Amino acid sequence: MNFHQPPVTFVGQVNLKVENLERSLAFYQEVIGFKVYEKTATSAQLTADGKTVLLSIEQPSDMIPKKGRTTGLYHFALLLPDRADLAKILKHLLQIRYPLQGASDHLVSEALYLADPDGNGIEIYTDRPASKWEWNQQQVVMVTEALDAESLLAEDTGGTWNGLPAGTVMGHIHLHVAELTKTEEFYTKGLGFEVVSRYGPQALFISSGKYHHHIGLNTWNGVGAPNPPANSVGLQSYTLVLADEVKLKETVARLNDLGAHMAKEKGTFITEDPSGNRIMLVTAKS
C-alpha cells in the first residue's frame, strides 16, 4: 500500500521560516539535494521531482534565531524510495563531512538525523516493507537502535550522487507540543488520525491507513512549553492532504465541533493544533 496518496491522509508540504534565505538555499540544494521549483527575493519552493513542492523556505523581516524549549518543529522527515537511496545520501554526507545528529534503526524504518543552518531538525529515511512491521493489536512496534551503517553503505552500487531521487516524499512530521490530552483529541477526533504508538506519557505517534506514523507529537520541551515568538525561525505551517472535498468538509465539521481554531485564506482551510502548530488542509486535487 502507498501510505502517501489517497485515500490516506498524509503530510504533503512543510513550510519553514529561516534567518537567511541564501544560506538555507545553499544547504538544501548542496547538502540535502533539493531542486528549486520557484524562487523570489524572500522565499523559495523546493522539489525532488521538479513537479511537487515538498518544502518551502521563507525569510520574513526581523527574523530571530530559534528559541529553545518551545512548541513547533522537532523534525520533518523525507522518505526515500529505497534503501540504496539512503545509502547514497549517507555516503554523500560522510564525504562532505556534514555532521549527523543520529542514525537509527526503528524496525519499521532506517533513518539519518541532521539539522539545517537554523537548527530545524531533518530526518531522511527509508521504510522497511510494511509486511515486515510488527503490530501488537493496534500498536506498531518501533524501537530506536543503532543503524547498521556498514550494511547500509553496502547497498550503494557506486555512481555520482545527484540529489534527492524523484520518488522522494514528505514521509512525516514530528512536533513539539505543550501537552498530549487535548492534542490527541484534536488529531484523532478532529483530523481523523489513529494513535499507533505511545512512548509513555511523553510522546505519541499517529497515522492514517495503518502507516507507522504520519505525525509524531512529543512534550520533550516540557509540559506547558510556550509557543515560539512569531518572528522566530522554525515551522510556519504544514499541509495535510485529504482524499477529496467530501473528506475535507467532514474534517472541517469535526474541527468546528471541537471548537478548534479555523480560518480560510485564499480558499484554503487553516487550523491550529492546541499548541499553535499551523496546519493547512488541502485535497489531493488542490
Q: Helix share of residues? A: 10-25%
Determine the structural class based on helices, strands and strand pairing. alpha+beta
Per CATH, the superfamily is 2,3-Dihydroxybiphenyl 1,2-Dioxygenase, domain 1
Give the end-to-end Cα distance, rounded to a whole number of Å: 22 Å
Average residue-wise pLDDT? 96
Largest sheet: 9 strands, mixed
Tell me the domain tally: 1
Order of strands in the sheet with most strands: 11-6-7-8-5-12-15-14-13
Strand content: 35-45%
How many individual helices? 5
- Tell me the name of the CATH class: Alpha Beta
- In N-to-C order, the SSE pattern is EHEEEEHEEEEEEHEHEEEEHEEE
As for the CATH topology, it is: 2,3-Dihydroxybiphenyl 1,2-Dioxygenase, domain 1
CATH architecture: Roll
